[in-house]
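Let's sit down with a protein and look at its sequence and fold side by side. Go ahead whenever you are ready, and we will take it from there.
>
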Amino acid sequence: MERLSGPVFEHPAVERASQIARLIGFGCWLIGLVIFAAACLSGEPVLFAAFGAFYVSLAGIVGVTATVPRKRQAALDREWGRRFQELAIRDELTGLHNRRYFNSELESLFRRCQSDGAPLSIALVDLNDFKSINDTFGHAAGDVALRVAGRAILAAAPADATVARTGGDEFAILMPGKSRDEGEVIANAVRKALESARFMADLTQQHGQIRATVGIATLDAHAEPSALLHQADVALYSRKRAAKAA
């Protein structure tokens, strides 16, 4: 990530501490200037010695005082940097991981599981007739439905799974260590969790229902991450077509 120049965020407490440090430095500089002027006018060696000692002490005082806002600002920069990085990998609406993070994690887990000979399953979740929710109840209700769906999927997925919102009404689950049969069990649990979930559709207190289709694919020794994703996508739309034909 490209480093931002300057502080990420100026905090009022940091600015106040900086102002105090500047005022102390300016005040000490004026005092030192008075001592120096008095030494020059009187020619007293004692005053020249006092002037030198004062400025040595001043350097230490200002250095210590200025360290406080610098440390505070550095801590704030680290905190806001962490928050910015988190925002970069999160879906703003649902709080789940976003497509960027999902693609990165897919690549990483794929290589690791392939190297270890461990299974890796991926589930793609598509909400059925989601457009009708927006058309019937409005986009605000659609946003609520997406958040409810995200929470339901996250609750039904394994603890070590990566759950992401990868598109408008599409979600994905990466399941390291899960075989296809285990993936199918989890897919069924996800479908049931979504069917059990309800969301407030409009101001009339009507509750909407969510239904979804899930496609599963499992790591193939000769596949690539993109191929695994494509297999899950094909499985998803095959099931959607089968459900419509039934």
The mean pLDDT is 79. The radius of gyration is 31 Å. Helices lie at 12-42, 45-88, 99-116, 130-137, 139-156, 180-196, 225-245. Residues 45-88 form the longest helix (44 residues).
